[in-house]
Amino acid sequence: MSATAPITQDVMTIPRKLPEGPINLVGLTRDAMRETLIAHGTPEKQARMRTGQIWQWIYQWGVRDFASMTNLAKAYRAQLAETFVVEIPEMVSRQVSSDGTRKYLARIAGGHEVEVVYIPEDDRGTLCVSSQVGCTLTCSFCHTGTQKLVRNLTAGEIIGQVMMVRDDLGEWPEIGAPKDETRLLSNIVLMGMGEPLYNFENVRDAMKIAMDPEGIQLSRRRITLSTSGVVPEITRTAEEIGCQLAISFHATTDETRNLLVPINKRWNIEELLAALAAYPKVSNSERITFEYVMLKDVNDSDEDARRLIDHIRRHQIPAKINLIPFNEWPGAPYQRSSNNRIRAFADIIYKAGYASPIRTPRGEDIMAACGQLKSATERARKSRRQIEAEAGL
Ligand code: SAH
Ligand code: SF4
Hints:
393 residues; single chain; two-stranded parallel ribbon; binds S-adenosyl-L-homocysteine; disordered N terminus; alpha/beta
């Protein structure tokens, strides 16, 4: 080529080597994808349409390689493949419980691993998704809380867990099929490892993708975010995500909640209840789920049940109370309340007019139940004595 070769070529045709390697399109919002495409040569006028097309390939049909995106020009597909990738976490292992629950270990960039749990039921299939590797909080009854925070997951790694499990369940629709009716994975709960509201933007972007009508198409009523009580982010969740909310309540006095859910020292029960009372109006959602782990002789008295009702009534919160039998893990400083105690507690709540289902532990035999998650590669960094000291025992 001569030194005077024209420099006015369409930027589309100039292969550009990116110093930081290929860019992953998974996890970008629609706007971000559009901007990224433009920044790498897609003409601005076409960018909205191209984003829509690529988006559908990735999220509606589950396609990962550009060569298969047949409504795009061949040269454009090749061009995309030079700059971008469609990448999701790698499934390292899968364990299947005797009750059908599947626990996956997913490897993300940097070699870290998170657990993802799929829980099939008669009328739905729920995926329990992680938002962080580890957790900064140290709830004394939670296995994840014994693992320090390693890092936040990116939006791509969060929605990538959903895509990874859809792969495993073989439930991407046939390309061109009229409407995706296959719903083995019909619900998402952000109840895996981590505190989702300490990774707000990534969780929000991932859930927007899950709800997008031209993608995974899950209704916001089928997505539940569980938080330990990051009060300022609760209103933001209502405004910017609008999904269902679950709150890890677990205690009815500040004294006990400070021990079980230490974030209570930052935002106490009254502040939390006020934020919860505002949530349904702002998000136009239904009831708030109060999660309540049943710990023998710690938070399971009749008096606790009555106080719980009183809190909810006083703030007029539309609520359902989900009672979770404590799931044990090695070194845990608590015991599960007896079945009789749990039933008596549930009864008081039910008679007061609130639904009080007792959550059946799922996948216990493979350590997949609530609060048992922790990546095997990230070994416990706390001793039993440390755990007990933090639990105030
Ligand atoms: N960090 C968020 C979401 C993950 S925990 C939160 O705390 O809400 C999901 C649910 O499992 C929470 O309600 C949590 O309190 C509960 N949980 C944690 N450890 C548990 C255990 N050992 N047994 C039963 N439930 C547990
Ligand atoms: Fe973190 Fe939730 Fe476990 Fe508390 S219960 S340590 S917030 S994952």
